[in-house]
Structure formats: C-alpha cells, structure tokens
Amino acid sequence: xxxxxxxxxxxxxxxxxxxxxxxxxxxxxxxxxxxxxxxxxxxxxxxxxxxxxxxxxxxxxxxxxxxxxxxxxxxxxxxxxxxxxxxxxxxxxxxxxxxxxxxxxxxxxxxxxxxxxxxxxxxxxxxxxxxxxxxxxxxxxxxxxxxxxxxxxxxxxxxxxxxxxxxxxxxxxxxxxxxxxxxxxxxxxxxxxxxxxxxxxxxxxxxxxxxxxxxxxxxxxxxxxxxxxxxxxxxxxxxxxxxxxxxxxxxxxxxxxxxxxxxxxxxxxxxxxxxxxxxxxxxxxxxxxxxxxxxxxxxxxxxxxxxxxxxxxxxxxxxxxxxxxxxxxxxxxxxxxxxxxxxxxxxxxxxxxxxxxxxxxxxxxxxxxxxxxxxxxxxxxxxxxxxxxxxxxxxxxxxxx
Length: 401
Known about the structure:
It contains 17 helices and no strands.
C-alpha cells in the first residue's frame, strides 16, 4: 500500500485537517437552512415548509449520487476528485446565496448534495491512504473531527450569523471558507492515483464481501436510533422543562462527541470491536436511563452527554470496519455507507415523526432500545468478519483507496 507521511509514525495533520474541513463544510451546508427557514422563506417568497425542502433535496442529491459517482471516478487521481467536490460546494453555495428563484435554489441545493455524496465516500479512504496501516484508525478519527464540530458549533454559529447578517450572507460565508479549503488542499493534501481497472470490484461483489453487509446493518440500525432522538430532541427535552435550552443541550452533546472522537482515536486500531460494542451498549443504557428519568433536567443533560460520548466516534469506527472488510472495494463500500447513513437520517425523521404524533416522546426510549439491541446483536455476531476480535488486520488494507 502506498502511504504518505504517516509511514514514519507521524500523522500528516495538515492534510487530515483539510479532510476534516471538507466534512465540516458538508455538514454545515446540509443543515444551515434548518435554522434559517423563516428568513429563507421570506427571501424566496415561499412558506417555511417549502423552504425546508432545501434540506430534503440536498439529502436526495447525496443518496442518488454517492454510488454512481464513486464508481465513475474510481480511476481518477484522488486529489482531482477531492477538488471537484470542494469546487462543487463553492459553485452551488454561491448559487444559493445569489438566487432569488425558489426552483433554481432547489437545483443548487440538489447539486451541493451531489458534491457531499462524493465527498463522504472519498474522505475515509483518502485519510487511510495517507498513513501506515497501524495508524489508519487514528488518521480517520482526525479526518472525521469536522463532523461533531459542525454539529455542535458550526450549525448554531451559522444560524446566528444568518440571523445577524442575512441568510444569503451565511451561504456566501460558506463559499468563502471553501476558497480557503481549495488552497489548503492544493498546498497540504498529497495526490494518489486512482484504482486500475483490474483492482476495481463490481458493486454486487463488494456488497457480498464477508462482513460488509453486517457493518452496513449496524450503520443503519445505530444511525436510525440516533436520528430519531437527534431530530426530535426539542420535544423530547421539553418534558424536563428544557424547551428553551435546546441549544445548550445540543452543545453538551457536541462537546461530548468531540471527547468521544478523541477517545475513539486512541482505541480504534487496537480495540475496534470492543469500542463498537461499548458505544452501542452505552447508548442502549442511555435509552433506558432517559426513559426512566425523562422528567429530570439533570438526568437529561447526563444522558445527552453520555449519548454524545458514545456517538462521537461512530463514523470513525464504522467506516474503518467497513473499509477493512471490503479490502480493494473500500471506496465502493464507503459510497454504500453514504446511502445507508442518509437513509437512516431520513428514516429517523419519518419514524420519529410517526412516533411523536401517535404516542408522543414517551415512545422514543423503547424504540431506541429495540433498535440498539438489534444493532448490538449484529455487531456481536460479526466476530469473524465485520467487527473481528483483536487488533485490526492491516493486511486487508490495499492500495487504491
């Protein structure tokens, strides 16, 4: 396997943080409209519910594009593909900032989602390729740090700036950050060749590689449980009298998630299986705890912190396990991960909405517990392929990712 400066035992932090910045821009671009719906609605002369479709079409772009674009660009040089995704954010966030037409805005948002779908399927493999196999999990933890930062700090800050400067300026600011990122990638991120035709595996072949389906099943069940609670956190914490403190609750989650991703970086290469099982078991215990004490503000904050701690390293753990299992098909497998992950986000919104309408937030802990126990059972059974015991098997990691 060809590797970068991580071969000498040091992480190429400049390059890895450029990947983290890419993930940060992906997340903030996706979620920014959620905090600015009234302002966007007034600006485009549509209802807030129609403005909310800016989030929907972004997710749709990611879902539809991740697999075909990843397959289509497998043979391209890796930095070229990364720059294409970043330039996509520059073009389509700028179009969103300048557009006064609702439908043109939706088209721009769709193609911003397309850029994100390709970016998410690229970041993990790129980070792994920069370092020696024994450092791959730690490198991925650094490359994924942009996600909890975006969720805990980037989105609230973008929402505040949008309210202060106008929603168009919030998107223009994202374009400005993207210009900085383009220069950063050109200066710091090493380039690698794509996969040769003989290295590429068909989609079906990757899907049926031992361990791949087990990891994807854990991704779906874990993220479905997470997104039911995350999407409807406001009504859930209102029972404890925290309706006016949702921002603080999410900040507690984000801070804990940052701690979780640091902890995962220490464990992923030596104890990946244990870390996955412990994270799922912790979230399941949180579901029980919050079900029993959902009326207590102190209990809710405690539960949310432990939930964030268990979630922070999820992307690192699951993408490392998936890429290890898929071997030469890692890029294609990671594009499947984008589809499954986004499907769980959408599913969490739909299922959580049904639960909220039919039974209220009291139903959330029980449903979360069922999903998490199912996820735990799948991960536990995948002891040979998917989430194997012991140290990661670096021999599975092959050039081309």
